[in-house]
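Please predict the structure of the following assembly.
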Amino acid sequence: MDEIEKSTLPDSYVLMNKMGLDENEVARRKDWLEFTPDDEARLLELNEMAQGYATEVIEALYEHFLKFEDTRKFFENPTVLSRVKNLQKEYFLRLTKGDYTKNYIEERIKIGAVHAAIGLDVKWYLGAYNYYLRAVGERIFKAFKNNPDQALQAFFSLTKLVYMDIGLAIDTYIFQREMTISKQQEAIRELSTPVLQLREELLILPIIGAIDSQRARQLTEQLLHAIRDKRAKVVVVDITGVPTVDSRVANHLVQTVDATRLMGATLIITGLSAEVAQTLVTIGVDLSKINTVGDLQGGIEAADKILGIPVTGKHDDTLTSTN
Amino acid sequence: MKVPILKQGNILIATIQSALADKDLINLQNDLSHQVIQYRANGVVIDITELDVMDSFSTRTLRNIASILKLRGANTIIVGMQPDVAYAMVQLGLTLPDIKTARDLEEGLILLHS
Amino acid sequence: MESDHVSIAIEMDTDIVSARQQARELAKNLKFSSSELAGIAAAISELARNIITYANNGTIVANIIEEKGKKGVMIVASDAGPGIPDISLAMQNGYSTSNSLGLGLPGVKRLMDNFEIKSEPGKGTVIIIKKWVMA
């Protein structure tokens, strides 16, 4: 848990910005929950009482966590457990310290992010809020037993704030999940389209899978940068593995061919079946600009010709016996 | 900003810097047209490694330069186009159909001598 | 925090370079790829150029924008020039800048994510383009 806290957590301020949680958004949420300055005042009043039973409540909360297999595993290390308890106590007391503005939100986001990062499922995280509401609720009603209306008002105020926290926690979890998915998609894209250096000045790019506009753009960028960085003179792009080659994909290919030429290199496309070529010509795509060769092998041979590398035929190099 | 032109044997080498305004390009056109005759150059390399954008004006002007120089007996080669500049250029629908291109100055000179 | 806005008066050829360099610097504050930045610079170069060619002068304003958690850059190119008589013609693909009659607008549209144009003969032209950072 230590390593996670130090290096991989995004700065909470940055996270807030990325999640779109600015002053306006916070105000909107408070409006929605009808959280007013009166609520803030009531919560502040509860603080002294909260100081009194905070430790008790936290101890009980973690006893609860340790009872269940799904949550126990996060708190097996006693050092971790004691640190987390302290953080949790601070969090608990913060609920009744007022000033529920940007800093408050930032802290909440940070805590949510930590829990999402360690892999604590959101349902357990939200379960803690359930515990708080019950634990504090009981104590509020006991403290105001002669004035149940006041107790109810105080309890509502707490509930509103807790719901805002829950909203933020869920947002944080969702956001983390989207970031992960996005990173995974990126990784898949890059892994599935490696630009390979076959020899000096020759690159090959076998494309596998469907190409949408975004991927096409990425491929072109990747390819053009590789041409510069690897000082390539010829690139062979094989599209056998691309299920659909429609006019959109074809136009991207033409753009890539043109851009390659502007950089002083040649693009050879292989794996464009006769049928697909026919279709594209019928639609009006100008294939004359594209060097197309049957298969990858043929493409590499064509590339070698351009590079002035003798294309080795299947001749026998063994010495013939003279006797 | 004046584009510096160097002479290497029968070849002129013009190196473009990034902040190239229209009049700089027109001046380059004039300078090259004169110098090709003055130095009896038969080849010109225009190095655009530092150029940030290839737009319609620079495209048109480079093509004009190549045409003019061709009439005066010199071949033009454009070298050093950056990947992002090339890609933005083709997306704008621009091309340099009648001009040879090469990766860099070294390749460009090889191409001119061949 | 850095500025989120630049405004450049377009009156001469050097302003075309200023506009695209300044807007590019602004866009660098977001997570655009180098390719996307080059595209933004190229689009601005074309728009600024149109202003000078057809309207003598105008303005290019670039802003960082945000919508539904997405961040991007918005560029507004405006002038009080003669206006474009037939916008749909100007937006046709054949009307590219390779022939000198074209405004290069289809190309600019290709480079950007959003493209809006308002133009009336005698009332000038406003073109608004946006590019969003891909998550």
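The first strand of chain C starts at residue 5 and ends at 10. Residues 95-100 of chain C have pLDDT under 50 and may be disordered.
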